[in-house]
Structure formats: structure tokens, C-alpha cells
Amino acid sequence: FRAILSGVSERHMASFPNAKYTRSQRAEVAETALRANKWDTEAWDTLLQEVNSQPIEKVRVVYDTFFEQFPTAVKFWRNYISREMQAKNFEKVENILHGKLLLIPHSHLWQSYIDYVRATKGREEIQKAYEFALDTIGSDVNSTTIWLGYFDFMKQLRCNGDNDENQLLNCRKRFKQVLEYQVHRLEEFWRMFELFENENCEKLYPNPRQPGDDKAASQQHIRDFSSKYKRSLVCYKEKQVLRQYLLEDMLPLPMDVPSSPFKTVDGNPPLAAPNLMQNPPKKTREQLQLSLWVQLLQYEKCNNQKLEKAEHAKRVQLMYQQAILCLYYTPEIWIQAAAYSATIDAEGVKEAIKLYDRGCKCLPASALLHISYAEFLHVREMNDKAEMVYRRFIESAKKTEGMDSTLLLIHYLHFTHKVKGLEAARQLFVQVKGYACWQFFTAMGQLEWKSNKQPVVARNIFEAGMQQHSGNLKFVMTYMEFLEAQNDENNLRLLFEKIIAQHDCPEVWAKYLQYNYRYTGAERFKEVEQRAADSCQQMRGTVPLRCLVNRYKFLDLSPITNQELTALQCQELLKMSLARYVGSRLDISTFTQLYPEVGENSETLGQAVPTLAANGDLPAHKNPFVNMLGPRVTQPNFSSLPEFTPLKNPTPPDPSQDQLSEAPCIPVGWAKEKKEGLDDKSSLVVAQVKREPGPIIPPIPPLAGLAHPAQVAAQMAQMMKQELKPVKLEDGDSKGPGAPGAPTTAELPSQLAKLLSVLPPPTQYHGPLADVEKLLDLLVENTLPAPPVEPTSKGQPEKRPLNDDAGPQAKRPTFDIYAQRQAMKLA
Fold this sequence. Notes:
The strands form 2 sheets. This protein has a two-stranded antiparallel ribbon. It is extended, with a radius of gyration of 41 Å. It is mostly helical. The longest helix has 30 residues, at 213-242. The chain has helices at 2-7, 25-36, 41-50, 56-69, 74-86, 90-100, 107-120, 123-137, 144-159, 165-179, 186-199, 201-204, 213-242, 282-301, 309-326, 331-342, 346-362, 367-379, 383-399, 406-419, 422-432, 438-451, 455-469, 473-485, 489-499, 506-519, 522-535, 544-552, 562-583, 588-594, 709-721, 750-758, 772-781, 817-826; strands at 685-688, 727-728, 734-735, 745-747. Helix content is 55%, strand content 1%.
């Protein structure tokens, strides 16, 4: 792991303290891996499993270090709390619950809270704890255990004699509440609700007018509420489809973490944690989970249950908070949660500010989150807080290695210009221009030019930027665009002459040429073209058509068609391929004259033309420029091509384009190669399985003029029946289809040949194409009538033998589609 430690940034290394616990070999390896990469989830899971059996006092520091990286790991929080409760450290448990309970709205942590209260408090506190939990996370799909515990607790109170009418009404209210939530085991809660109504109907309806009215009222109440229950059940099943691939116990990871190098001592893979997926990789997993959560949240916002606005907003906010638990280091989910909270009411705006504050503390290096927060505050005229957000990020970037604040400085500049005016923006520029990047100079120059209408001041700012960033080609190109927009030809020429010595590259020449093409005469731009060819090596040897296209094009308009442009690109590729081919056979001086873009000072590299070889050809020699050209033939990138997917309902072919090919194509597998060849049982031979060097079989002439496939099949059979005579070679051997040992041929099944003879020609079909899969399914699922049996000479129909189509002696068709489909289903 020393190599790992040397190659990982310090911000990815865990400051792991020296814990006083007994370390096994697996624990030592995991701890070493964590010192190299504090985000190694496999190593964390292994280490926590190893210390699980040791006293909590010795391993508490391990848990504290783990929760610094993963503060929302609900499964590990519950395990940690249970261990503290076993050690009777109730004060420690209370501190944990007080700090984390509202920040982690997950049913597992709230169940730990209920367990703690039931173990240490009285009946009233337990009931209040249940009420508090149900009001907070009762709509969570995983809160079934809390709901069942609450109803069991209330049933125990009724059994102990606490039959207060308010308790019954409160219990009925909770039953109706859970039935409108999409929690697990919803059907069981419905049966519990019916049983509760039937058992307590006399107490719920104490003064019936007639005997039995209380039961009738209770049944009517159940029927009235059944519609809401059914709607909730439908929504639950729909949400389960969307939640199918959610990893609710997933450990969140930042996107820039290094990959995990952790392996166990014995070489086996680490223990599989239930909250980790082996496939896909973690970075892809984060994006997949984000997409799933966004889809689920979008469904929740649809409000298919037609809930009231307050109740619906409460559910969506809870789901956003649960999404944050799994995507804690993803700024997008923080921004979406805050934006939704701000749309509710004034209290929602305060909740959004709290979410932004938490997100900025969690992701102090996220420029996206800080800019979004500052804009959120600026829109609501909280400019002082917005300025604090900008300044806090900039100061943090100065102290943190690898943290770039240029984008925040640019947005802070625009914010200062909008809020405080021009002078404040100029003062900010003066303060930071000493260490600012070239983008900041560009932003200030464009601000003076576009907003303040001061092009002279803008040019001065660009000139100040040139003093620090003249070696940056992007900044130089930006400055050239500014001068071109100002139509300042004199300064543009001066700038070009100044930078051409530093950046003798095709980008600068192309930019300057484009300007001359548009705004100067022919003599001027031809002079610039000649200078570009003489000065820049990459500008030499350009295809003449490319020069004309660059000269005459404008924006997305081109003087040639798309087909001609494609041909031009192929010509440029082939030029290099041809250069590689002839480079090893031509004299170097001749080669550099033909391809001046390859090397400089070609006149000093010449050598005598090689002497001719014995066969009269030029011998190959080593050309130092050939290796600069790459491969002779440019291979296409097949990995970027999409996979072929057959259309389910393809468009019918154009009858006018339908032609019969010269040689029919047969599926792979109809023909089998054998050493001795196949017996000729069919007269229709359509293709040769394996082609060997030897005589070429004459192709079948086009048959597009035939009127019917029957005639086509007859002519094909007649032509292929003709015996092909073996050809005698120079050594006396005979090769060919008719010679011994000739390659075997494939036979078209007689059933298919008969089918082709009765089908109408394809040019006469103008209807839709049938779905073959559905057609075969219909044939398999339905029973077709048996064909009529011809009577024998005695007048009685001949009995069908038992082994006609069954048994080992049965003769199957050569290409039995039905048998193959049945075999695939059984497999």
C-alpha cells in the first residue's frame, strides 16, 4: 500500500487515529487501505465487521471516524446505538438521537429511538414518542414496524382497562392515516382496521337508535373509506415498481474519489455488504440512483391520491430528505430539495435556506451549490447573506489545495456590479487581478464592453491580461475576437504580429485568415496564406479544395454539398495513407517536396535516389518521417457504432426496389460440413458451405424478370443440377465441385422449396408485415384441425401408425421451428 499512499491526494486520506482494540489480520489490512483512501467502502465494511465483537469503549473512535465520512449511514447508526444501549451508555444515546434524529428521517433510526424510549421511559413518554415518530416519518414506506408497534401498544392499553373514548378515536384516526400512506403490508392494516371497527363499534357509536345500528354504522364507515384505501393501494404498487432498484442503505460517495484498491489477506474478495452493488461501478451507481430518485420524486409530485396541499408537500419534502441520505455528496439533490421547499410558503423558504446551509457545509468545494445558493438569496433580496456565501467560498479556496475559485469570482463580480454598481466592481477587479486567471480578465473586459459601453476600458483590461496570460492561447483568441468585433484592424494586426512569435500554430493563422477572407481584398489574404504556409508547418500541404472551402464558407453555409464535404474528408485521410505507402520508396527530398507538412528544412534532408533492385523495383528504405504519419489505413471506430436492434413493426419494403439477388442466402446451420461430404437427397443446391482455392463457380444470372417464384425455383434447380466438371491443375490434380474431396454443399429443405413454389411474388404484396413472434405464438397456443384422411381401397380410412410422428424412429423435418422453440422454452 505504499504505492497507493504515494499516489492518492491528502484530501482522500483518512486521519485514522490509533484505536486501542485487538486488530486481526483482516482489520490491519482494512485499516491500511483506509489510510490510503478514506472513501473505500469495502474496507470500512470489513473493519466494522471485525470490531463488532469488541467492547464499544475500545472501538468508539472507529465509529466516530466512519461517521465523519458517512454521516447518513443509517444501518451503521442503528448498530452503533444498539451497542451503546447494551453498554448502558444512555447519555451517549440521547446525545446521538438529539443531534441526528431530525437530520436522518429514516425508519431504522426512528425505530432505535422508539426502542430507547421503551427501555428507559414510562407509558406516557412511550405514547408521545410513537405520536412524534408517526407525525414525522409515518408516510415512509419502511415505517411498517413503527405502525405495528404503535397499534400493539394501543391494544395493550385497551386490554389493561384504558378504554377512553379519546384513545379509540385517536386509534381510528391513525388507522385511517396509515391506510392513506403507501407503506408495506397495507392489506394487513386494512384487515386490522376492519377488526378494530367491528370490535369497538359499541364504544365508537354509544347511543344507537335501534339494536344493530352501531354495527351498521361501523360497516358503512368502512365502505366509505374503502375507496381511499384502494387508491392508496394502487399508488403503493406503482411506487414499488419505481423503487425496485433503489439502494436505500447505500453509502454516498463523491464523484472524484479514487477507485478502491482494497483486497483481503487471503486473496478472496471482501465480504459483500448489503448496501453495496458490485455492478455497476460506484460512479455509475451514483448517477443511476440519482435518476431513480428523481423519477420517484416526480411521481410523488403528481399527487395521484388527490391529497391536500399541506399533506402532499409534507410527503414530497420527506422523500427529498430521504434522497439526500443516499446522495449526500451530490449537489443536484440539495438544489432540487431547496427549490421545492421554497415554492410552498414562507416557512418553506426558511427550510430551503437551512437545506442550502447544510449542503454547503457538506460540499464546501461545490461551486454549483454555492452559486445556486447565492442566486437564491439574491432573488429574494438577501444580498448580505449572498455576499457572505461568495466570500466564504473564496476564502476557503485560498486555504484548500486544488480548489479553484475563478468561477465564483466571476459570479461575485457580476453580483457586485448589479448590487453595488460599477465602482465597486472595478475595486473588486483591482483587488484580485494580481492572482486572477485569464477568464476573470475576460469577464471584466466583456462587462466593461457590453454593460458599461466602455470599449476603451475593456481594451485596457485585455492588455493588462496580456501581460500575465500572453502565453495562454485561449485568452489570445478571445482578445482577437474582441478586436475583430470592434473592427480595430490596426490593433488586430499588431496583436497578431505580437503573438505569432509565441503561438505559431494553425489556430491563430486560421483565425487571422478568416478575418482577412471576410474584410480584406484578394491580394491581402493571398499574402497571409503564403505567410501561413511558410511559417506554420501544419498549414503546408493543405488540400486545395479545403483552402477554397475555408475561404468561401460563412457560418454554417458551405460552398459544397454534404456528399462533397464527406469526399473531402476522405481525401485528406487518404493523402496521409498514401504518404505512408510511398514514403519508404521515394527519396527523402522528393518525399518532403510532395508532403511539406511532414518535416521542416526538407532541402537539407535529401539523399541520393536508391539504386534499383534486381527485379527493377525501388527497394524500401527507412524514412524517418513515415512513423509520424500513423497507420496506413485509418480504421473506423466500431465501438462507437450502436448495436443493431430489429424493429418490432418494420416498414414494408418498397416494391419498386425489390429485386432478387444473384445467389440466394441461407441461414447458418442448415448446412453441415463433413469430411466425406453429404448425400445428395435434394435436387436444389443453393450455396456452397466452404470455398477452397480453385475454380470459381459461375454465378447464377439475375432472375428479377421472372414472374413467379415457382419458375425461379425451377430455373435455379435446373442450373444447379448441371454437373460441374472438375478442372485439371498444372500438377495433374483435379479440383472443383465434381472432384473427389471437393467441398460439400448445403441443401435447401424440400418443405421450404415447396413453400417457395406456391408463394406469390413479393412485388404483388403491398400490405403490412406480420409479427412473426405473435404468429408463431398463435400457432402454438391454438389447436389446428387435422387434415382429411384419404380412404383405403376397402373404403375405410387408413389408421395412422403410432410411431408416425413420435418415438425414436420418427423422422423429423430438417428445420423444425416448433421443436426448436419448445427446446428453448424448456431450457
